[in-house]
UniProtKB/TrEMBL annotation, chain A:
The lineage of its organism: Bacteria, Bacillati, Bacillota, Bacilli, Bacillales. It comes from Terribacillus halophilus. This is Multiple sugar transport system permease protein. The keyword Membrane applies. GO terms for cellular component: plasma membrane. Keywords: Cell membrane, Membrane, Sugar transport, Transmembrane, Transmembrane helix, Transport. GO terms for biological process: transmembrane transport. Pfam families: BPD_transp_1.
TrEMBL record, chain B:
It comes from the Bacteria. The keyword Transcription regulation does not apply. PANTHER family: ARABINOSE-BINDING PROTEIN-RELATED, DIACETYLCHITOBIOSE BINDING PROTEIN DASA. InterPro entries: Bact_solute-bd_prot1, SBP. It comes from Terribacillus halophilus. Residues 1-19 form the signal peptide. Pfam families: SBP_bac_1. This is Multiple sugar transport system substrate-binding protein. Keywords: Signal, Sugar transport, Transport. Gene3D superfamilies: Periplasmic binding protein-like II.
Amino acid sequence: MRVSVEKDAESLSRKRRPTREVKAKQIAYMFVLPAFLFFLVIVAYPLVSVIWDSFHDKNLLNTGDGRFVGLANYVEVIRSEYFVQAFVNTGIWTIVSVAGEYILGIVAALALAQRIRGRAIFRGIIIIPWIVPVVVAGLTWTWMLTPDYGVLNSWLVKLGLLDEPYYFLGEPDTALLSIIIVNIWRSFPFYTITLLAALQSIPRDIYEAAALDGIGPVGRFFKITLPQLKSVSIVLIMIHIIWTAINFDFIWVMTEGGPVHSSETLPIMIYRFAMQELNIGLASALASLMLAFMIIGFMMYYLYIQRKSGNRGGM
Amino acid sequence: MKKCLTLLMCSMIIASLLAACSRNGEPVSGSGDQIILDFWTAWGPGSKEEEIGLKVIETFEKENPDIKVNVQVMTFDMLYDNIITSINAGNAPDISWGLGEWFSDLNHADALLDLTPYFHEWEEKDLIYDNVIEALTVNGKLKALPNYLGNRALLYNKDILHEAGLDGPPETWDELLAMGPIIKKKTGKYAFGISGTGVRAPQELIMYLAQNDLELAVQAEEGKFKNTWNENPDELERATEVFRFYNDLLEEGVIDPNGRSWGHQEEDTNFSLGQYAMVVNGTWMEDTIDEAGVIDNLGIAPPPKNASEATYLEISPYYIFKDTDHPEEAWELMKAMLGDEYQQGANLYKSPRIDVKGEGLWAEGYDGLTEIGAVFPQVSLGKITNDMTDAVGRVLLLEENPEKTASWLGEEINKSLEANGQLSEDAVRSK
């Protein structure tokens, strides 16, 4: 009788003892836990708190206040005099920058993929703009563009392209465009090195076969090179759309969004609400709106790709 | 053993993280009973302020061996951001230098210590200008002490005026406008410089408004404020005249068209290099002008007036924060910074002390301007100063009608007051 009870207890404890599979899962959870905690503290908490603040009257001057105001902050942001301009500026800034960076990046990558003397040196040099800190690049270009002592103005006047020095960053018509050009100059090397790596992985025999079929260099570029670079290009463009749209430092260093808000983008507007007007509610509402715009944009793209691949599957 | 090691490493990591989160200013273990005062400042690198300030602090620490002053130097932009965020995080420094434009924000946030009892006991209190103390007093409580007074005077390059055949600087707006084309024609240089962007643009605008007997916001009986330009046609006309003056400066060729977007650096540098003839500016120009070697050509006069004589009185204060654990020690340090050594060494021509005046051109040129100085109203200025800069840009860069700009600015000032709960009741009712 006693033996049978002991056997039952042993089999029960064996049943309760976790299996190897469960153990492996437990260990896996333990490994994931730090990353999960990190995500909660660093990503989720600030994100949720921004969304929470966007529905409250939160001002850094009235720390005790903070009543629920519903959508009032969103309405005020959208009705703000400079919202539409900042929204349009963000679109222009992002689209023109990314397009310019991609075009310049692929041209430079194609040039550096050729077997030319000193190719390694050029490949090294081209990365320099990208490794210069934004503040240093921004201030240097600001000085170069200054009408009174800027070297670019001096050259343009000497070459006869300008009658007199022009304040590129001080005029509403040219401020944003000037910063976009500087941003393209700084960011295109990243495209170049990424696309160059992708170019080198395209098998040479495809080009040779195309050449034998009588396809010229331009045809080879559009029919072989571009399609082969498609996946890398999509990743590059997507990353840069996000990076550029949320960029704050370049514009702030060069114009602070001026003159008269002509180069102000949504991130600059968020900063103004938060740190100049000290209105965290408005800043959070605009930040949440910007997040929503980005999510909607990427969702639309995702749906477009899904539909396109669905159509192709049905054919 | 492995478990022990893992536990030990985790404990060490947590301990180091917690140590990094420790509150600034609290004595580090092992440092005995030493008091640490956090002092934030925006001294320029290698400036007189920094050189003399560090000397005064060194002497202060020797005289008070139980106090250590932890000085952190940063730019004004960083200083403001850091002060605002540290107040909200409950970790403000003990003392900070700052701009006068921040005074109302910091007071509104209830972040400033009431210095009244300390000030009344201070034996040298009568040496500080009365109107300066008044400007830093809210509801009978003194909330800051002045570091320096950034009065503005008209600095002019005598050589350029002489070359243009002019006897002296302009005394009125009309004279300035008339001189512009003459100077341009005879010397090829522009007559005047203004700042259309940055912190100095609103400072210059408030001076021109004061010269036309206008205030940004008037205080109502209940202690709140409102802008009255749009209620009063005469005031709106005078505000319009100010913006028309900006427009005329450009139209008449008195200012460089590129100067519409100048910040203070371009304004200061170009005047020091003799690129244009006149500017309304402060005594900090002494070093820049001296370095550029045009000091012998310099003349100083009161700013050109219109309806009244007025200038901008920039009161740059020291703030002691309410949450300091060492208010008395912080007050003692502030007294040291207002003492003879620092004020004579760093603030000779801009001291808030009546007995520190210096001699020569700079002292004489700025003498008597404190009495006609206009200051910003004691309201939250973050959005208002941005709107003032925008107003200047609207007239000069977007060529907006001056009357429309004046009316727009009046409305925006009231919107900002309302957003901060500072708009007077009758203005709220009349909306």
